[in-house]
Amino acid sequence: MPELPEVETVVRTLNQLVGGKRIQRVEVLLNRIIQRPVEPDQFAAALEDQMIHRIERRGKFIRFILDDIVMVSHLRMEGRYGLFTADEPIDKHTHVVFYFTDGSKLHYKDVRQFGTMHLFAIGDELIMPPLHKLGLEPLDSAFTYEAFHAKIAHRSTKIKPLLLNQEYIVGLGNIYVDESLFKAGIFAERETNTLNDLELHKLYKSIVETLKAAVEAGGSSVKSYVNGQGEMGMFQQQLLVYGRKGMPCEQCLGVIEKIVVGGRGTHYCPNCQPRGIS
Question: Which residues are catalytic?
Answer without folding.
Answer: 2-3, 60, 264
